Amino acid sequence: MKSIHMKYGNEKIEVSVDEDNLIQIIESNPFNLGKNENEVILDSLANPIGTPRLKDIVAKGEKICIVISDITRAWQRPYKFLPLIVEELNKSGISDKDITFLCAAGTHRNQTEKEHGLLLGPELSKRFKVIDHDCLDKNNLVYLGDTSYGTPVWINKIAMECDHIIITGAIVYHLLAGWAGGKKSILPGISGYESIMANHALSLGENIGDGSNPLVRSGYIENNPVHKDMLEAASFVKPSFMFNVIMGSDGNIAAAVSGNYIEAHKEGRELVNKIDGVKIHEKADLVIASAGGYPKDINLYQSSKTMINMNEAAKEGATLILISQCREGLGGDSDIKDIILNYDNILDREKSLRERYSISKFIGYYVCEMAEKYDFIMVSDIDQSLVKNANIKVVSTIDEALNIVYKKRGENLKTILMPKGANTLPILQD
């Protein structure tokens, strides 16, 4: 038997499977540039990709808008890199009064002053205020035209009135855009609600009954309409400079890319693949994954990131066992609760999603679509009644889950284990 420990809330549980059936344990790849975080940041700023250095792009007296992520992405450690970006701007003659920090909140809530402080860090917080983008405030948006996908591009007026827009953030796998970072600071980051919903609706197939669009998935952009539409919207805005970090498995900044928002992002995607993209040579009959413990398994909404990655390791009709405590139940807002609790079939859920699209509704729909596609079991504290209509079985222990699977399908199941399922993306090799 092969035994490994997987995180569950603040604890760990032991998972044991027959070694003869184990295809692979999917874990992040070792990655170390041999530099500390400051060195990584400064090296990137000194060697931008596809543009001159930031200090050579801006000029004294010009207005600068620095777009930052919101508090839900504080794990990017912006308080580490934002002071160094401001320092470079100051050295080029840009005064503090000409720098505006704009929070790319997308459809998220406004941040508190304390949260702004956590994002900027103690030194910058004394010097700057942060403006939260409000996607519903039409008076603070400007219309730049429609993309070829029909998305109306409404962008924050404050940003567009500046001479330069600098976008910041992190590059990680993303369920809709393929990868986060880059153009996502523009759409959805500082775009109007109408723009965001039109773009995200491209995550569904063309017709009712098609379900989610198979071209819209983590780690894929080539023919991904959500990505392409975002990129087109960003081309209307023309950000002057991008700075994005890539996180290591220890939660620290492992690498960074800066410069042109298209070229630098491409290099950043390759780095993410080196760290969190894990090659597999066959898919599994049984995938067992941990969402990564607290806070990644705080609720089902957050745990959906793990389900998305599990999907890439599973054969058609496979069994999935998700280890996720979900101490706060479903999570998200009322939309995810509505789509999971108030429907009993996938078609009606899809119709509801198409009638009024929201990210929360899509996450709820995706969870239900996964449970429709696979035999889905959760080792969780979540109340069974919350996911009963989604056709998800909830058990208390991994042994109970495995007993159900083996009794139903036999014990000779090719198995993949994913102890850090929220971060690692299985990539099938031809």
TrEMBL record:
Residues annotated as domain Lactate racemase C-terminal: 282-422
Residue ranges of every copy of the LarA-like N-terminal domain listed in the record: 8-205
GO molecular function: lactate racemase activity
Transmembrane segments: none
PANTHER family linked: LAR_N DOMAIN-CONTAINING PROTEIN, LARA-LIKE N-TERMINAL DOMAIN-CONTAINING PROTEIN
The protein, known as: Uncharacterized protein
Organism of provenance: Clostridium pasteurianum DSM 525 = ATCC 6013
